[in-house]
Task: structure prediction
Amino acid sequence: MKLNTAILHGPYSVDPATGAPLPPIAQVSAFSHPSGERMEKVFRGQAPGFAYTRLGNPTISAFEQRIAALEGGMAATACASGMAAVSMALLNILRAGDELVATSRLYGGSLSLFHDLEHFGIVTRFAASGSAEDVVPLITERTRLIFAETISNPGLDVTDIPALAALAHAHDIPLIIDNTTATPVLVNPLRLGADVVVHSSSKYINGSGSAISGVIVDGGRFVWDVERWPTLKNYCQMPKMAYTARLRRDLWENFGPCLAPQNAYLNVLGLETIGLRVERECRNAAALAHALESLSGLRAVNHPTLPASPSRPLAERDLGGLGGAILTFRAGSRERALALIGKLRYAYIVSNIGDVRTLVVHPASSIYIHSDREEMERAGVYDDLIRVSVGIEDIDDLIEDFTQAAQAVSDIE
Ligand SMILES: *Cc1c(COP(=O)(O)O)cnc(C)c1O
Result:
């Protein structure tokens, strides 16, 4: 089965208890058991069943199973937000004194998290790109993981995942990839060599901007050495399961960032159309980027499918020729950028991505407000940059809208 068929007809498509094609919403905190003995078995993991929603819930499991299958992973763990997923994915294997290497053109929230982790004694070394020449000099004997985004947001660099995975594995380090912006429709990073994948499923997986959530997918292939990752030492009897076992039984359970059952349901619903939506959004983004290039007053239009993009060959090779549904451009000045987004009729000014509606944001005054200038420029964020998350609207309407907005602000300095 290919992607769209597999989503609808995969092994988890029907609820075995009721025959419901969508999972019933178990909107409860805890589950009852016929006897204390039976409850003990569930708690010991010797009988199937659920005890308490922070630890597991059938609606959340339905979402996790679908995502694990869609990403080609061994297991998935859902979280209350994408940031919860990124933090849990890292803290599961890091301790004070450890280091990680991350590319510097990352989602602002992740940059902010990495700074926060310094308070816990965890140091991030930022590589200018995911290339060997930028990454290798930053690897030390304390490095415990490498982190990158498939398509960086908003820099729009496509990471060479096979090369970065090979490099990480040559140093016996796992590669964790944030696949939010590319989605499983474009690529499965686990199949390209990544070891763990995280998503902000608030974005393309949900699809309509109706719930915040995140998910961690474990490829189940990395062989963890408990000398180097001591947090996993209680799970070394099953080395390839160690990552998810420790996550579910210790860290994630103890920190408590579980997803709400209602939101898991909304994500399962969103997933059913992810193939259609994302493909349409990517094609709209490529067409809009192409059209924006010819508008006077706009410059540095960026989308991985444009001939001038250095990421184009990787988008061709690894992302099926699609470059994601985000594009950016520079309006010439901060004033003109803010005026332009105010003139758009269809695009909403919203600091989100992955919605069916087209969304625009001025990153320098919103999502990067906590970054200093140097960090912004390293992430590819400038005072006049506009980020567009392209939706499923009719492309002619989008092109017309951006054209009239660009004309309307052309005499602003
Ligand atoms: C939005 C986003 C996150 C954070 O996700 P939330 O659901 O907002 O917590 C992480 N990584 C990327 C690439 C994102 O776009």
Notes: The chain has 15 helices and twelve strands. The mean pLDDT is 95. The two ends are 54 Å apart (CA to CA). The pocket of pyridoxal-5'-phosphate is lined by residues 81-83, 86, 107, 109-110, 149, 153, 178, 180-181, 200, 202-203, 212, 214, 353 (CB under 6 Å).
